[in-house]
Amino acid sequence: QNLGEVPEFGSFSSMLRLPGVVIGGTSASARLRQYDAADGTKLGEFNLLNAGLGSTPIAVDGTLLVGSGIGTRTATGSGISDIVSNAPSDLTALCVSGTLGCSACDDGLDNDADGLFDSDDDGCTGPGDDSEVLGDVDGDGEVGERDRERFFAGFGRAPGEVGYSVAADLDPPGAPDGIIGLVDYQRWLAAEEAANAPPPPAPAAATPSCGLIGIEPLLLLGLLRAGRRRLGAAAGLVVFGLAMGATDAGATTTLSIQPGSGAVLNGGVIEVEQGGSFSVEVLADIDPETPIVGWGLDLEGAGLVLDPAEVPSPWVAVFAADGDGLAGLAAAPGISGSGILLATVQVHAVELGLTQLVLGITPDDPTEGFALQAVGAFDVVDFGDPLPVEVVPEPGTGLALALALCGVALAGRPRRDLGA
Length: 420
Known about the structure:
Layout: E1 16-18, E2 21-25, E3 31-36, E4 42-47, E5 58-60, E6 63-67, H1 80-85, E7 91-95, H2 145-154, H3 182-195, H4 216-231, H5 233-246, E8 252-259, E9 265-266, E10 269-273, E11 277-286, E12 294-296, E13 298-300, E14 304-306, E15 316-317, E16 327-329, E17 337-349, E18 353-360, E19 369-371, E20 380-382, E21 387-392, H6 395-412
Parallel strand pairs: 8-20, 10-21
Antiparallel strand pairs: 1-2, 2-3, 3-4, 5-6, 6-7, 8-11, 9-10, 11-17, 12-16, 12-19, 13-18, 14-17, 15-16, 18-21
C-alpha cells in the first residue's frame, strides 16, 4: 500500500515496467497509476471506471492493454469469488500520445475545432503529429519559443533518428524530402507569425456618399487623362521601376575564408608542417535588404582533416546532416551585416603538398544554402576565392631525409684500395 499517496489505494496487480516508467493498478476503484522508474514519484493515474483491477497491464506497439474485474480463484473453484472472477469483463486499450493511432492527427477527432479532421487539417504534417496546429512541435496547442527549441533540436534529422519530430517536418503533402531542413524552418516561421498575429481590426463604417452618384467614374477618368498629359514618359518609368522591383532576385551573400589562430601566411598561402593544425574563420557579407534566417555549407580540402565547426552566437548551432557542423539558424527576421562570423573550423595537415580550402553547397541537400524568411526563398551566394594551403615536412623530418640521402650518395662512391 502506498501510504505516501492520497488516497492510499493498495496495488495488488503485477507491475509493468517500461523505459523510464512503472505502471500498476489498484484493486479498489480500478485506477491505473504511473510512477517514475528512477525515484518512484507518482506521475499520474487513469480511472478505468470499473469495479476493480487485478490483472497485469501489458504494452503492445504503443498501446497499453489492461483488464478489469474482481474475484479470486480458490482451490475448490466453486466459491462466490470463483463465480465472480469468471464473469466477463472489458479489456481497456489506452494508446500512448504520439504513437500511431493515438496522435491528434490520426485519432479521428477535430482537436482544434476548425471543422477539419486529421490529414484534412492543414496543421497536420502526417501520422504521429500530436497537434492539428501547424508549427506546434511540442503539442501544447500553441506556437512559441519552446516549439522553436524543439525544431532546432530536430534540424537535420530524418525519421528514426534521435531528435526527429514529424511535427517539425513541414514539407507539403506529396512532396516530402525526408529531412528537417531550411525550407521547413521557413514554413515554421510563417506558421509562428500566423499563430501569433493580432486579430484583424473591425471593419470600418461605410463612408457617406457625397451626392454625386453616377458621375464619379467620369470624374476619375478625366483626372487620369490630365495626369497622363502632365507626366508624359515619366509615368511609364515609374511603372517600369515597380515591375523591376517585383521581380528582383535579391542581393548576393559574399563568403570568405580567413586564416585564424596558428595559421602562418607565406605569400598569401597558409604554410603548415605535416601533423600541425590551424584554424580558419568563415565570414559572410549579408545585405540588410535580405537578412538570412538559416544557412548550411560545405568546407573541403584535399589532404586536410577538418574538425566539426564551431558556430557562434547570434546563430544557433544545429545538426548538419553531413556531420561537419556547418549549419546555423536565427530567429526572424534574420541576420545581416558585413563580416558576420558564420563558423570557426580547426584544420589538421595530413598529406604533404599544395592544396586549398574550398566553400560550397551540395545540390539537393535540404539543410544547405542561405535561406531568407520567405518560404522557398534563398539568397544568391558568392563563395569567394579558395584559400591555398601548403603542407611542408617537419624540420626534423627534412634533416633526417637529407642525411639519409647524403648517406646513400657516400655509399654509392667507389672505394679506394688503402693497401695500394
